[in-house]
Amino acid sequence: MRTRISATIALALLASGCGDNSSQPAPAKQISVRSEQQNALHNLSESNLKIALRRAIYDSGKKCNTLTDAGYVQEYGNLSMWTATCSTKQSFAIFVGPDGSIQVRDCREVEQLKLPACVITKRPKPDRPA
User: Fold this and answer.
1) Where are the alpha helices (DSSP H) in 26-88?
2) Are 78 and 71 spatial neighbours (Cβ–Cβ below 8 Å)?
3) Nearest CA to 91 among 122, 123, 58, 68?
4) What is the pLDDT of residues 23-37, one digit of tens each?
5) Whole-angstrom Cα distance, residue 119 to residue 28?
6) Where are the beta strands (DSSP E) in the chain?
7) Residue 7 phi, psi (nearest 5)
8) For a surface tag, which of 22, 40, 88, 100 has the fewest beta carbons within 10 Å of its beta carbon?
9) Are 83 and 96 spatial neighbours (Cβ–Cβ below 8 Å)?
10) What superkingdom heads the lineage (predicted)?
11) Does an H or E element contain 10, and which?
């Protein structure tokens, strides 16, 4: 009888040691999908990045005669966010999707749209001298 009680207590202790970890969910894994186009922008020189972003601005129907500043802002969802400033002081947020799609927004609109601010966090590598 004593052995049976000891075995029951031992089994109960073992079961309680296993614990229910459902109250502590496993940390969610972030999966990042980036296209060749998104990665390629990070490898462009300063002048080539300005050309690419200026073309995106024009393709969206907006105007920008001369780009004076451009750079990477951050990842936003699955979009890479870049910003470009024109000689007219107008700035644009350029979002590049993993499918190569482009969305261009005026930086004056990003706050009301609850998008990240148009603040460059990474500048392109400088052009190499010829």
Assistant:
1) 36-42, 46-59
2) no
3) 68
4) 667 677 666 667 787
5) 28
6) 67-76, 79-86, 91-96, 102-106
7) -65, -40
8) 22
9) no
10) Bacteria
11) helix 2-18
